[in-house]
Design a protein that fits this description.
alpha+beta
């Protein structure tokens, strides 16, 4: 069964509902569908290698294995061109223990991303290498800022914008990038060679070379 059809059936059968309830009283070590979805979204961003605008209608269920969830969610992207397309992902994701609000305490076993219009599917496994999309230039969005990707690997990404970002905007961007890459480097569009970055994210530290207080912690 195509996951687009499964997504529809789940909604019609009422097996599960939209996630919208507060989890303030749920212990941090307790896995939930909402927490599984947060971790799943980070994995989708990493594997899909394109801008992902998630639609907040999360569906899924806990499987017969405690702490393992099936998560389905739609998102839109312009990965393949200027026109926005709709996709749906289905992921099986397992809580490994510890703080369930920490995305690093989850691991996935299978990810399927389907174009809802064409039915074309892409299947990802945890050990699959991240492959670059053959599009030039490719753009991604973090914290509302559209970047052009200069270079990308599993561990780091180089991004450019027409103008340098303010320190506060860099911090907002860094918070979204940190779960996906160990390092990030920020360039102006005409200065994209290595060593010409004006800011960099390394682990939990943001280095803004234009700012007198150049180091900020990113939690």
């Amino acid at each position: 069964m195509r996951i687009k059809d499964l997504f529809l059936l789940l909604a019609l059968w009422g097996l599960i509902g939209c996630v919208g309830t507060s989890e303030n009283n749920v212990p941090d070590d307790q896995p939930t569908l909402e927490r599984a979805a947060v971790a799943a979204q980070a994995i989708v961003k990493l594997k899909f290698l394109g801008e992902c605008n998630f639609i907040p209608d999360i569906k899924g269920e806990e499987t017969s294995i405690p702490g393992k969830f099936k998560v389905l969610q739609k998102f839109t992207s312009t990965r393949y061109g200027s026109d926005e397309e709709e996709f749906v992902y289905k992921m099986f994701i397992q809580h490994k223990g510890g703080d369930a609000t920490n995305i690093y305490n989850w691991e996935f076993t299978e990810l399927i991303i389907e174009n809802t219009a064409t039915g074309k599917q892409e299947i990802y496994k945890p050990d699959d290498p991240v492959t670059e999309v053959n599009l030039e230039p490719r753009q991604v969005r973090f914290a509302g800022v559209m970047f052009t990707v200069v270079e990308e690997t599993q561990n780091y990404i180089r991004l450019s914008t027409p103008k340098r970002l303010s320190h506060s905007k860099l911090k907002a961007v860094a918070k979204e990038i940190k779960p996906l890459f160990g390092s990030a480097f920020f360039h102006e569009v005409n200065k994209t060679e290595r060593g010409s970055e004006y800011a960099a994210l390394q682990g939990n530290n943001l280095f803004d070379y234009d700012n007198s207080e150049s180091i900020s912690k990113i939690n």
